[in-house]
TrEMBL record:
Name of the protein in its database record: Small ribosomal subunit protein mS29
GO CC entries: mitochondrial small ribosomal subunit
Coiled-coil residue windows: none
Family in the record: Belongs to the mitochondrion-specific ribosomal protein mS29 family.
GO MF annotations, alphabetized: structural constituent of ribosome
Pfam families, alphabetized: DAP3 (PF10236)
Subcellular location: Mitochondrion
Keyword Transit peptide appears in the UniProt entry: yes
UniProt keyword list: Mitochondrion, Ribonucleoprotein, Ribosomal protein, Transit peptide
Organism: Spinacia oleracea (Spinach)
Length: 458
């Protein structure tokens, strides 16, 4: 009885406001009334269209309703125009306690502690040029939702950057002071999902390249163990994946071509050949000679040009990178946890059974996974790939290499929320300290969840 009364009262209340709207527009009005943005989400639009189509009401949605729906979808464009107007008013660029919301520092190398909890502006073209292997999806999502290419300067990133900076260029006080931080040449970034590991790794690669380092950056370590052709090499007992090897070599060449042309190969041993992608073994040859005086660029070109040599070249490249002395070398691998579990590949055991192939049995992973060396290397776990929880002590990884990357602190969350107000993701008239703190604790400092909750603040 009470439930029926509430339903009747709700219908009577909403009838006055929605009487002049078509059915589909009325539903959109209810869906979007909670959000600041004038544009409903794509999932909401899809659900509404599907609902009315299944109800046989698609005929009721005439040309006028379609025009209204198009008007709703122009909300993003309206928001962009408003943000362009806001850019002319510098008084809006204020964060917590009246501090500047954006840093005036123009380089990742010049960022310092005073820049933390502020945003650094980028140009998407510059980021794509600095990290042509591909930007993290979380970074692109942040740019798309906030309508600006800017990232929060976090102390956790500065600590990661300064760790490797001190290794290459030790400060003068490190030898005389006992308070010098402990340096790690090998680091595994771990931490909760959506805490910013992938973004920090991409920015670390960006910074190192700005410094003139040679950076081997792989944003999708999972691709090394999934998809493409795979064959067992009878010479090594490992599994070759020539298609993945070729793609990895092409990615490495995108930014580093000029630098690689100046670095000579330290080994002139022949390159072992394996099966090519879909073409089997090369008849009458099991190796390919390396000409004297070849550069790393020449080596990579062999792997790209000859599919039979792709895996052998990538394995040789790993050894060559350890021998480079003229320029600092950094290995940065995202989705590194995928290399400690089973791959997508399977080996046929009997006509009715097969066994999964572990990532360590793949030749390219076997060459790049170990951290038992003196090279600078960072691997970031990606829990969005859902490989399961790994044990604390990982094989071929130093005991002290694993570092927990934190979620947002309270100060960082304050900066993020003020930034979302500036970018009209949160309505300024409903924004209060109490509300953004509730959002922070509700999301437990999770960046993507806070961004999702931001338009819901009322």
């Amino acid at each position: 009885m009470w439930r029926r009364f509430l339903a009747t009262a709700g219908t009577a209340t909403s009838h006055h406001h929605l009487s002049n709207l078509t059915p589909i527009t009325a539903v959109l009005a209810n869906e979007t009334s909670r959000f600041y943005s004038a544009k409903p989400s794509k999932s909401t639009l899809a659900k509404v269209k599907k609902k009315f189509k299944s109800d046989g009401k698609s005929d009721d949605v005439g040309g006028g309703s379609s025009a209204e729906l198009d008007a709703e979808m122009e909300g993003d464009q309206l928001r962009i125009r408003l943000l362009e107007e806001d850019d002319k008013d510098r008084s809006l660029d204020v964060g917590l306690n009246g501090l500047p919301l954006f840093t005036s520092t123009s380089s990742l190398s010049l960022l310092s502690r005073k820049d933390t909890c502020s945003y650094m502006k980028f140009r998407l073209e510059d980021l794509n040029a600095a990290v042509p292997e591909g930007l993290p999806s979380g970074m692109l999502k942040e740019f798309d939702d906030s309508k600006r290419c800017a990232l929060l300067v976090r102390q956790s990133f500065l600590d990661l950057r300064d760790n490797f900076r001190r290794i290459v260029d030790p400060p003068t006080w490190s030898s005389s002071s006992g308070k010098a931080p402990k340096l790690r040449k090998q680091i595994v970034l771990d931490g909760p999902r959506s805490c910013g590991k992938s973004i920090a790794l991409a920015m670390l690669a960006h910074w190192a390249r700005d410094e003139g380092w040679l950076v081997f950056y792989s944003p999708k370590g999972r691709d090394w163990t999934h998809g493409g052709f795979f064959y067992k090499n009878p010479e090594t007992g490992l599994w070759d994946s020539p298609l993945q090897a070729e793609n990895i070599l092409k990615d490495f060449l995108k930014f580093n071509e000029t630098c690689l042309q100046k670095i000579l190969c330290q080994s002139s041993d022949p390159i072992p050949l394996g099966e090519g992608a879909g073409v089997g073994f090369l008849k009458g040859a099991d190796s390919m000679a390396m000409p004297e005086g070849s550069t790393l660029y020449d080596l990579i070109q062999i792997g790209i040009t000859h599919t039979h040599a792709a895996v052998g070249v990538l394995v040789r490249l790993r050894k060559e990178l350890s021998l480079v002395k003229d320029v600092p070398v950094l290995l940065a691998i995202d989705q590194y946890n995928n290399w400690f579990t089973f791959s997508e590949f399977e080996e046929v055991v009997t006509p009715r059974s097969s066994r999964p192939i572990h990532a360590k049995e793949i030749a390219t992973v076997n060459a790049f996974r170990p951290m038992t060396h003196d090279d600078m290397m960072v691997g970031a776990f990606s829990h969005s790939t859902a490989v399961g929880k790994l044990r604390k002590d990982l094989p071929d990884v130093p005991d002290n290499a694993r570092v927990d990357f934190p979620r947002y602190t309270l100060d960082e969350a304050a900066a993020v929320c003020h930034y979302y107000v500036r970018q009209r993701l949160i309505r300024r008239e409903v924004f209060t300290e109490e509300k953004w703190k509730k959002m922070y604790y509700l999301a437990n400092g999770n960046g993507s969840e806070m961004r999702w909750l931001a338009p819901l603040m009322w």
